[in-house]
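User: Could you write out the 3D structure of this protein bound to adenosine-5'-triphosphate? I've included everything you need below.
Assistant: Certainly. Input first, then the structure.
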Amino acid sequence: MITVDNLSFSYKKNKASHQVFDDLNLSFAKGFNVILGPNGAGKSTLIKSIFGLLDYKGNISYNKVSITSMNIEDKIKLMSYLPQMDMEISTLTVLEMVILGRLPELRHKVSEEDLNIVMDTLASLNITSLATRNFSELSGGQKKLVFIAQTLVRKPKLILLDEPVNSLDLQKQLELCQLLQKIVNKQNVDIIVILHDINLAARYAQHIVVLDENGSIYNSGKPCEVITSKMLEEVYGVIANLIYDDKDIPIIAPVSSVHNV
Ligand SMILES: Nc1ncnc2c1ncn2[C@@H]1O[C@H](COP(=O)(O)OP(=O)(O)OP(=O)(O)O)[C@@H](O)[C@H]1O
């Protein structure tokens, strides 16, 4: 899966520079990976680096093949990426928006295969009824699901999702995680998802990477190894009780911030 070696990156504007990573090394596992960490830790920057949007130092590889030196066509074949920021306005319908997700595969016209993949994806996200609606008139959560559909129709080997459950209701959050789990298991796809909901991460992730506020790795491993009261206090500054369900999945019950507010 993805291995990150000696990643260093700074955002630069005019003469100012903001370093996010200094010689970061980490590995993701096959399957369902989650990146956790507080605001500003560098989670989005890490995903953007993997997708090749940033000019970083170091090497990122997928199954030992360097993505860093891969050409753009091969990168697009390998990965699809859902950014955190969504476009709000479009004159297209939902169906047209999702078909756009297959742009690299389209050969001058939309084939029956393209349409089948798009319709199957809409059905798997329970949004078939939105297909002919105008995108701009959807709710925030419905728009999010359209962007997720756009990301999935590419049928990539690696899916990168930056906070995909934001603005989804509780049922849709669970359904999306279950769908991602199904895609991982049935289609042999690896995913890396940024989540702020630690309980969702605990339930669905096979491997968790925790970044601390300095953009360093605090810990990585299986949810039950990584999600601890100590981690919640040291990384998130939160006092929390942990209980375990019958499958030994940790459930966190936050009590308070370590700061007196
Ligand atoms: N375009 C940019 N220019 C300068 N600094 C940036 C830029 N984008 C992000 N940063 C800074 O880089 C650091 C990491 O940002 P990043 O968006 O990767 O964090 P994050 O962990 O995804 O945060 P969040 O959970 O709030 O989305 C932050 O300190 C942020 O202020």
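The chain has one domain: 2-257.
User: Perfect, thank you.
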